[in-house]
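From the methods appendix. Each design record in this collection lists the tokenized structure first, followed by the designed amino acid sequence. Records were kept in a plain field format so they could be parsed without special tools. The example shown here is representative of the layout used throughout.

RECORD:
FOLD TOKENS (1050 positions):
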């Protein structure tokens, strides 16, 4: 039995090695196409059937192995393992072959789908057929779905092939995977090309749809246009007036606008048809173009006809309404003195408006510049600004139109100056108004006035008690025409007495008397004069600075408030006023120092602290932040902590306290470099603060008539609430002076002018500023004369009115020019901008001319200068001023009522550069007895003058403190032997003509023989720079350093 078993086992092992495993080794090629893939799957399925038939024999062999020895059992177990591995490999190949065959089927279907879609896209050109479009859409969707399935099968095959290939080394999966990937790439390329073809097919279809829609719209418009033409032709038969004809012409013009739109549409679709070669649309398009041309020709003919009809009716109506010119008020003879202004006028009516011609002694005056002729509102006038004897003669006004003509003549006689002089009747002086007695109190002004006439003009002399009175600072003599006056200022009792005025000329003299009585004032006993002082706005030096403390520590904020008079100081915490209580003390110390002390700080004390100083000259505010943290337990290493919000100035760092710990020796001078710079405007500001902003600005210009009321308002927001300042022509508006009314309700700011006067013309400006920033808004107010409303009068009333007016003296409304803001002299550096500004009023608006050193200048002759005249605000701007621009500039404003001038000087100085620190001061700590060398480097043009200060006081040069000026702008402060008294705040001040710069730092001196303690060392470095005429700019470096505690190191 055992022999038979061994024989069967041997036969099975031989079959497994020579047949089964040999089959797997020789059948590993999966092929590269569908037939090869199908052959691979068929052979492996057939071999799998053979394996299944062997299962009974193998099972019988395995069941008999239990009765055998261990050697035979091991052989059977090895055989069984190989057999099961064979079955698993075969099963994986069958599964993989099935996926491979399925993918090739999808690939074949995909190629067929692509071919079908290409064929449809090429063959189906019926783009307007919706059925074809739907069919194409369905086919393309099917292709996309099939591609998605093929890609899924391909990805699934690749994943499984890689997994099987790791165990079945005889299976050639790499070739199959490459085949699948090539097929997928080909499909992607074909679907991309087909998609592009499909997109082009859809675009063509959309173009066809658009062409059809546009053709349909044009056909509808043609049909509607025919109806409009028929309607117009019917209405044209009933036209009786030119207005009716003009209305029809307007409708024709409207039609032409629509016609141009349709013509553009036709042009677009014609270009599209040619581009896409739509032969089936050619016939339809030609038919539409023919209909379009017919309707356009018909409307063109109708339009020409209506133009002719309109002109015919208009000429007929003009003839019917034509009236011969009529002169309602004839010219009258006149006589004027030489040099006077003269104007003659006549009211003339006629239909149509007549043509006016003026003649002097039969000669047309239109070519003579001395005669100004106008015809406005049926009034013809001739004006001579300055008459001469040659202007005497007969003046004729002629009015003519197609209906006829009319004329009127009058004689003008101009008397020469010699005739006028001869006619003057000489007479002696005579007092029309006599002097009157005057009673005043001591210190008041006394005025004597009288009116005296006489020819020739008399000489007027004043006397007191027969003593001649001469003009001085307290005595003022005034003469205005025939009116004479004497004014005594600050009268005293000794001025009392008899006063006399004498007027004399060649014909005689006249005298008038009066008495002055000055009442003495009873004076109180003299008192000591009260001290006089100049008011100075408050300021803080030093100001508050931010603090970071640990719970339980003592906090002290300290400021020094200066100002005249002495300001009132208020402390606030989170905008709530603070007063002295149990844990907080508000202290006012000597020398204007104010302190806020918290003995033991807690978390409830953390927040924003502010101090405000107020006096009659203004106010000042300083803000700082207190941060309270939990006490630290261990200090491990050196750290640098940036403080993001610091104040502008600071208190000198106090000397360190001695400590008991021993440290290694190190340098005696410690320099802490700057860590951060922060703009002063951002120090201590709440994150919620916002800069001022105009939500609604003024109008660019307001035009208003005299005596009207105007309100100009804007909307302004900002946090904190911004301070505002009103300016008129660049100068502050003083409230409660009657010039205007300034109001503020909520966020609305307004200026009210009631009533408007001529001096209100100019530029109004509102400036808003808070701690976040500054902004402004401006507008121009133009004041005009009141207009007179025209009323229609009957011809009879008009004649009476003009006859009455001719008896009066002719005057023109208006006022001469006046500079409400005059020019101001300017000093500018070479190549900087310079500007003259002024505001001029006048009615009518004056003509403005600029001169330089007496010679006229303009934009044509000086292209490098910008000239401006907007609403009476005149300016002259030099964008790049040079020495050649220096000189005296004059602005002349002239109108028919007068002339006004304003002048200023432009001085161009050599360009200068304000001082600046290239190398600045750095806070230092030195041991008592050591030397100190502080060095800075300063630039500037001209070379700055350097001054050293300690706590604000100048430092003189001496043997102990040496001030050295080296080359290249370097300056050194050398203290030979430092003492404890040398602690303080040191400043290097650099000044020149262009401005100044400051660099400030602290000096800390520790006792001799001591080492730096374990404390926080604070270094502040403040640098200020001021350019002449500009605000101060400050940079501040601030850092905190904690020295390393060596005892804590491992």
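DESIGN:
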């Amino acid at each position: 039995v055992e022999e038979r078993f061994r024989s069967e086992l041997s036969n099975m092992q031989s079959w497994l090695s020579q047949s089964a495993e040999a089959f797997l080794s020789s059948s590993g090629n999966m092929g590269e196409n569908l037939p090869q893939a199908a052959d691979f799957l068929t052979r492996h399925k057939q071999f799998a059937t053979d394996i299944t038939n062997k299962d009974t024999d193998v099972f019988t062999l395995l069941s008999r192995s239990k009765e055998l020895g261990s050697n035979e059992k091991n052989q059977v177990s090895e055989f069984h393992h190989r057999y099961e591995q064979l079955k698993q490999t075969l099963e994986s190949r069958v599964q993989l072959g099935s996926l491979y065959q399925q993918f090739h089927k999808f690939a074949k279907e995909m190629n067929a789908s692509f071919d079908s879609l290409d064929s449809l896209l090429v063959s189906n050109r019926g783009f307007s057929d919706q059925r074809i479009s739907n069919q194409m859409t369905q086919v393309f969707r099917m292709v996309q779905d099939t591609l998605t399935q093929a890609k899924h099968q391909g990805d699934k095959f690749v994943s499984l092939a890689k997994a099987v290939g790791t165990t079945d080394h005889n299976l050639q999966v790499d070739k199959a995977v490459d085949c699948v990937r090539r097929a997928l790439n080909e499909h992607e390329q074909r679907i991309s090309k087909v998609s592009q073809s499909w997109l082009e097919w859809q675009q063509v279809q959309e173009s066809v749809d658009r062409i059809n829609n546009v053709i349909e719209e044009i056909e509808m418009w043609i049909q509607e246009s025919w109806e409009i033409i028929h309607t117009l032709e019917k209405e044209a038969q009933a036209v009786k007036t030119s207005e009716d004809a003009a209305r029809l012409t307007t409708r024709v013009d409207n039609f032409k606008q629509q016609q141009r739109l349709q013509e553009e549409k036709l042009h677009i679709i014609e270009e599209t048809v040619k581009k896409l070669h739509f032969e089936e649309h050619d016939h339809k398009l030609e038919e539409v173009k023919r209909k379009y041309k017919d309707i356009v020709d018909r409307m063109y003919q109708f339009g020409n006809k209506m133009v002719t009809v309109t002109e015919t009716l208009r000429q007929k109506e003009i003839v019917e309404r034509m009236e011969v010119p009529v002169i309602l008020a004839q010219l009258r003879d006149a006589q004027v003195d030489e040099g006077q202004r003269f104007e003659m006028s006549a009211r003339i009516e006629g239909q149509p408006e007549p043509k006016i011609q003026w003649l002097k002694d039969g000669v047309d005056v239109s070519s003579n510049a001395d005669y100004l002729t106008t015809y406005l509102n049926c009034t013809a006038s001739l004006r001579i600004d300055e008459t001469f004897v040659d202007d005497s003669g007969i003046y004729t006004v002629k009015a003519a139109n197609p209906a006829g003509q009319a004329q009127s003549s009058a004689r003008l006689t101009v008397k020469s100056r010699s005739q006028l002089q001869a006619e003057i009747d000489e007479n002696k002086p005579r007092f029309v108004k006599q002097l009157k007695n005057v009673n005043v109190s001591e210190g008041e002004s006394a005025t004597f006035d009288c009116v005296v006439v006489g020819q020739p003009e008399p000489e007027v002399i004043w006397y007191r008690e027969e003593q001649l009175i001469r003009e001085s600072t307290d005595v003022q003599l005034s003469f205005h025409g025939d009116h004479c006056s004497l004014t005594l200022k600050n009268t005293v009792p000794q001025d009392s007495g008899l006063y006399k005025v004498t007027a004399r000329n060649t014909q005689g003299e006249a005298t008038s008397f009066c008495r002055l009585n000055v009442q003495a004032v009873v004076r109180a006993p003299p008192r000591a004069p009260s001290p006089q002082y100049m008011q100075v706005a408050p300021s803080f030096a030093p100001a508050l600075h931010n603090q970071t403390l640990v719970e339980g520590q003592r906090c002290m904020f300290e400021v020094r408030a200066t100002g005249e008079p002495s300001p009132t100081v208020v402390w606030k915490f989170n905008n709530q006023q603070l007063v002295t209580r149990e844990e907080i003390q508000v202290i006012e110390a000597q020398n204007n120092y104010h302190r806020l002390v918290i003995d033991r700080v807690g978390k409830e004390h953390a927040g924003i602290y502010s101090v405000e100083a107020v006096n009659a000259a203004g106010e000042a505010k300083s803000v700082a932040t207190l941060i309270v943290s939990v006490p630290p337990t261990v200090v491990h290493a050196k750290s640098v902590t940036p403080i993001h919000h610091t104040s502008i100035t600071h208190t000198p760092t106090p000397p360190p306290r001695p400590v008991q710990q021993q440290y290694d020796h190190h340098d005696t001078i410690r320099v802490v470099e700057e860590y951060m710079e922060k703009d002063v405007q951002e120090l201590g500001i709440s994150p919620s603060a916002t800069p001022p902003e105009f939500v609604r600005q003024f109008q660019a210009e307001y035009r208003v008539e005299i005596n009207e009321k105007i309100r100009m308002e804007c909307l302004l927001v900002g946090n904190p609430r911004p301070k505002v300042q009103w300016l008129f022509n660049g100068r502050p508006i003083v409230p409660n002076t009657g010039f205007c009314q300034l109001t503020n309700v909520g966020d609305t700011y307004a200026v009210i002018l009631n009533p408007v006067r001529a001096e209100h013309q100019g530029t109004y400006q509102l400036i808003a500023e808070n701690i976040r920033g500054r902004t402004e808004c401006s507008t121009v107010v133009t004041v005009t004369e009141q207009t007179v409303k025209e009323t229609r009068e009957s011809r009879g009333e008009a004649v009476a009115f003009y006859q009455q007016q001719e008896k009066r003296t002719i005057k023109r409304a208006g006022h001469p020019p006046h500079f409400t803001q005059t020019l101001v002299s300017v000093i500018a550096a070479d190549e900087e901008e310079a500007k003259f500004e002024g505001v001029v009023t006048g009615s009518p608006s004056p003509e403005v001319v600029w001169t330089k050193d007496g010679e006229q200048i303009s934009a044509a002759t000086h292209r490098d200068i910008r000239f401006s005249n907007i609403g009476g605000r005149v300016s002259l701007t030099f964008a790049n001023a040079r020495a050649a621009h220096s000189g005296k500039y004059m602005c002349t404003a002239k109108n028919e009522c007068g002339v006004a001038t304003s002048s200023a000087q432009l001085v161009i100085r050599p360009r200068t550069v304000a001082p600046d620190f290239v190398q600045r001061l750095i806070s230092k700590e030195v041991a008592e007895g050591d030397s100190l060398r502080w060095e800075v480097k300063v630039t500037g043009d001209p070379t700055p003058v350097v001054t050293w200060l300690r706590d604000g006081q100048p430092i003189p040069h001496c043997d102990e403190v040496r001030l050295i000026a080296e080359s290249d702008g370097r300056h050194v402060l050398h203290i030979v032997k430092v003492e404890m008294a040398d602690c303080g705040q040191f400043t290097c001040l650099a000044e020149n003509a262009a401005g100044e710069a400051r660099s400030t730092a602290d000096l800390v001196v520790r006792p001799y023989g001591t080492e730096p303690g374990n404390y926080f060392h604070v270094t502040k470095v403040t640098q200020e720079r001021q350019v002449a005429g500009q605000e101060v700019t400050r940079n501040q470096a601030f850092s905190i350093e904690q020295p390393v505690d060596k005892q804590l190191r491992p």
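APPENDIX NOTE: The chain is about 30% helix and 35% strand.
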